[in-house]
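Bit of a strange request maybe. I'm writing a small parser for structure token strings and I need a real example to test against, not something I typed by hand. Could someone generate the tokens for this chain?
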Amino acid sequence: MSSKTYDFIPHDYQEDMIDWQINVEREGIWAGMGTGKTVTTLTAQNALQMSGQQAKPFLVLAPLRVARSTWPNEVLKWRHLNGMEITPVVGSATERHHKLFKGLAAGNSAGYTTNYENVPWLIETLTEAKKGWPFGTLIADELTRLKNFKTRQGGKRAQALGKIAHTHVNRFVGLTGTPAPNGLKDLWGQTWFIDKGNRLGANHSAFLQRWFYQHPSGFGYIPHSWAETQIHGAVRDIYLSVDHNLPVKEPIRNTVYIDLPDRVRAAYREMERQMFAELDGTEHEAFNAASRTQKCLQIASGAIYLETDGARKWQEVHTEKIQALESIISEANGMPVLVAFHFVSTLERLQKHFPQGRHFDTNPKTEQAWNNGRIPLMFVHPKSGGHGSNLQDGGNILVFFDHDWNLEEYQQVIERIGPVRQLQSGHNRPVFIHYLVARDTIDEVVMERREGKAAVQDLLLDAMKRRAMGKELS
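Reply from user aminoacidic:
Good idea to test on real output. This should exercise your parser:
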């Protein structure tokens, strides 16, 4: 994590998010990715602890990557959170046990993070230790992961959490993207953790009977025409739906950092320095500076090409960006997502990991299907999708998976769903752009220098020089 810190100057809607969390003890926030849910939540928790309103540490439940890196790194990013310590309780059972009880014994952690899969282990471990529940606030990042909760059935994790959600937890914060209309049936499970069924019914069956009717086929449920208005009205006092009020002419940009696994990090450094690396028993060699730059970009994205008997194949080396994209898709909660890629290996990996996705090709019916809302996830190469296509009707969320220094193609693919086209088509909605960036790699350099005039071969050398200077100064 970079040592550079920033001053946090919250937008009006972020001030609302902070005030909401301070003043409402059990609540949820519906806000898209990139609106600052993490920093505003940490700011609110810091204020509660500093004022003495909450003496106990908080616990964040999140996807593994987010629990391991995103929350702990966020406190290092902002000056006003300086000194706020976050302990990630992840890893093997032995590692988790050590981190948890070492932190609790020291009493110097403001908060702890762990992934949802560890909930049963956490509750069982604390029960066996007879230490009591040590957390005053429970924060569910990506609250939709609890949507399948039922009072008498459902997932093991949600069931375990349900046993302590209203008996041991004083404050509850649920963070998620704004629910889509077709997600109404998922609201009951999430909301139960906030109000124990007071607003949407004591159990899931009562919820369905009141606001839904069974599909004519006998499978599934359809909401009544009045359901959305009534349901949203019933939960309005416990959910804050964020209206960011930013100028629609500017996209909301969000950088999602991922950390390379240690073995991949070591291979990446070898490729930087020596134009050679070995990964999982396979040797990789770059023959010039431009080739080295490409191979470093490939490693950062998760797959590196193999030159074998004239056939171009690739080897997957990590799935960190895949996992980050899963979180974005989950946050979108049904809204279509457009993913820009550069490498063919990335497209093939995306198609494997996300079978619901579709490649944006030259068939006019593909563009039509996207704009008609029939494609939930689409993969686009800036070269093929950057000119002449109109994709703004289909969605307003764009993710850059790979990075490339071609400024024109980069700008063109943004323009396909950009704010101007959104307004021209009558959509008064913001455009969200998410960048998946491998920390401390050439990804960061390309992001910074994309609009500069540096030669391709200079990009990596510049990154290496700056990294070396940072070590000398530290």
